[in-house]
From TrEMBL:
Phylogenetic classification of the source organism: Bacteria, Bacillati, Actinomycetota, Actinomycetes, Pseudonocardiales
Organism: Prauserella endophytica
Full protein name: Glycosyl transferase
UniProt keyword annotations, A-Z: Membrane, Transferase, Transmembrane, Transmembrane helix
Transmembrane segments annotated in the record for this chain: 20-40, 115-134, 141-159, 165-182, 189-206, 212-229, 241-262, 313-330, 337-356
MF-aspect GO terms: transferase activity
Length: 589
């Protein structure tokens, strides 16, 4: 008689594989949540400390996009900032590919929830997407795929951007773009895969064009090196790959032609934006980012532009490990192409001249050939170090696979695996992400929170906040969102055209906004001439202003209030936590 145990079917590998997949994906979700745990624990008034003013800006983007969807308005443009000129949202990183589908979340729970969900989901989805592609199409071991995908999504440079730049966090489409290109290179259904490639690229345009450009540059370097290594194989791939790319380009062009026209030729568009020469210091690659377990905030600050632009921090243990992996796998054509792409993108990110620990050298970099090209001229060169992340992750996955597949005696194989995973722990644990810091937001002034503003703003009129909102202080955008977009704001935080047509951050300043900025910086209220008063009236008419407001708790509030009193020949009134000047008589409707 058979035992009952014999009737129980044995667990087969596919089932075990699915359990492993679920465990890996769950780990990614948990890791992403832990990074943003402080924000999730305080969605009502939490603010990512290192985002500076970007959280205000992104929440505004999500909120104004949701409003456009509900009111069936053009989501590519808004005049709620920079009134009356408005803002070209396609020329900003508004991420319509997230803001539009998450409109129900924004409407029901507010833009802070959308912000937190976008960032958290972006990390987890990017890791999951790379795991899926790597485990099914690149390596044969789930362990290798899991390690490589985790690095692609949670690398220090990605976590740095995770403070403020969701367009560099929500990267889950890039693995599938790479997959379509791999399928085309293998000759698989060029038309079908070309169409899918075009659809993926189209959606990525609405998530982030800059990451797409960096990824395309990385893939181009990989393709060139691989073709030089395997010319006959590359020639065989060229026809289906070229056909599929042409099909994809046609699909993408048909779908994004109008949005891109709007971006580059529509209202409040600009041709390019110049950032100056801001390459990575070579010493940053061997240092640890602020949000890493071994992070050194003081060193990171010296070697990067700011907390959200720590683009090059791999840590010296990982640099050593990747160098060793490159040497060990150099005979493998794909690994060689990945390694060259990794080092090339790192080199590009260093700018026109190599700088080592703050000391410039005379060694030129490839950025000298790229910085003036269309599209490249608008990108921070230091961000090209992000292009080194994915090749590094895939190399780690490939090396893990080879170690696990080594055909050695049991003792030697066991020792090799212990040694490899020990080296991985030594390289990756120090750069593991820590949770991002969050602080309490200042409460919204009652003037906006309880609707008092309605007594001062008529249809067609705007609100002028003193000093006017810009890249350094965009809190007024948060107040506007809380007030339900009941009024437009003069100036703001966005990217728009300057007087010469190039892009600039914030509005082109009017004389009064420049004066108020100077007072905010110095704390000195100047004497105002009759010409100054006339200019103030002219600027208020330009903004179609109904009311001027100054937060009572603002820095240099006394000097700013005195200045506005003098400009308007009118004493401020205290209303709802604000100093208020009713200027409807100055700008009659």
């Amino acid at each position: 008689m058979r035992s009952p145990a014999a009737e129980v079917p044995r667990v087969r590998w596919p089932y075990r594989g699915r359990i492993a997949d679920i465990a890996v994906l769950s780990a990614y979700v948990l890791a992403a949540f832990l990074v943003y745990r402080p924000l999730w624990m305080n969605l009502g008034s939490g603010y990512l400390s290192s985002s500076v003013q970007d959280q205000n800006m992104w929440e505004w983007f999500f909120a104004v996009t949701a409003r456009s969807v509900l009111h069936l308005e053009n989501p590519l443009f808004s005049d709620f900032q920079n009134y009356p000129l408005g803002v070209n949202l396609m020329a900003n990183t508004a991420m319509l590919g997230v803001g539009i589908p998450l409109t129900p979340v924004t409407v029901l729970f507010g833009p802070t929830t959308t912000w937190a969900l976008t960032l958290t989901g972006g990390l987890a989805a990017t890791a999951g997407a790379w795991y899926w592609v790597l485990s099914r199409h690149v390596v044969d071991t789930r362990a290798g795929a899991a390690i490589g995908a985790a690095f692609c999504a949670f690398a220090p440079s990605i976590i740095s951007h995770a403070n403020a730049h969701p367009n560099f966090v929500v990267l889950f489409l890039l693995p599938f773009i790479v997959l379509r290109l791999l399928k085309l290179a293998r000759g698989e259904r060029p038309v079908r895969n070309g169409v899918l490639l075009g659809l993926l690229v189209t959606y990525q345009v609405f998530l982030g064009e800059e990451p797409l450009l960096i990824a395309a540059t990385t893939m181009a370097v990989f393709a060139i090196v691989y073709a030089l290594s395997r010319p006959e194989e590359a020639l065989a791939m060229a026809r289906p790959l070229g056909a599929g790319i042409l099909v994809g380009a046609g699909v993408t062009f048909a779908l994004v032609a109008f949005p891109l026209w709007w971006q580059f030729a529509g209202p409040q568009s600009y041709g390019s934006i110049e950032h100056g020469l801001l390459g990575n210091d070579a010493a940053a690659f061997t240092s640890f980012a602020t949000e890493s377990l071994a992070g050194d905030a003081e060193t990171a600050e010296k070697l990067s532009l700011n907390r959200t632009e720590e683009n090059a921090f791999f840590g010296w243990p990982l640099v050593l490990l990747l160098t060793a992996v490159t040497i060990a796998l150099w005979r493998v054509a794909a690994a060689r192409a990945l390694a060259v792409a990794m080092f090339a993108l790192a080199w590009i990110s260093m700018g026109v001249l190599l700088v080592v620990d703050g000391e410039p050298t005379s060694i030129p970099g490839p950025w000298m050939l790229l910085f003036d090209l269309p599209l490249y001229e608008s990108v921070l060169e230091s961000r090209f170090a992000l292009g080194a992340v994915v090749p590094a992750g895939i190399l780690l996955a490939m090396a893990t696979e080879r170690v696990l597949r080594l055909n050695l005696a049991p003792d030697w194989g066991h020792a090799a695996r212990i040694g490899w995973f020990g080296a991985l722990a030594f390289a990756l644990v120090p750069i593991a992400p820590t949770e991002l810091r969050v602080h309490e937001r200042d409460p919204v002034p009652q003037f906006f929170a309880d609707g008092t503003w309605r007594q001062y703003v008529e249809p067609g009129g705007s609100v002028v906040v003193v000093p006017l909102p810009d890249t350094g202080d965009a809190e007024a955008l948060h107040w506007q969102v809380k007030a339900g977009f009941g009024f437009p704001l003069a100036e703001g935080y966005f990217v728009g055209p300057s007087a010469d047509g190039r892009g600039t951050y914030g509005a082109v300043r009017r004389p009064v906004s420049e004066l108020l900025e100077q007072v905010a910086d110095t704390g000195v209220a100047p004497a105002i001439s009759p010409a100054g008063k006339r200019q103030a009236a002219a600027d208020l008419r330009y903004w179609e202003a109904d009311v001027v407001v100054l937060p009572m708790a603002a820095d240099q509030a006394d000097a700013l209030r005195t200045t506005v009193d003098r400009l308007l020949d009118q004493d401020a009134r205290p209303v709802g936590g604000m100093w208020v000047w009713d200027v409807r008589a100055v700008t009659p409707g």
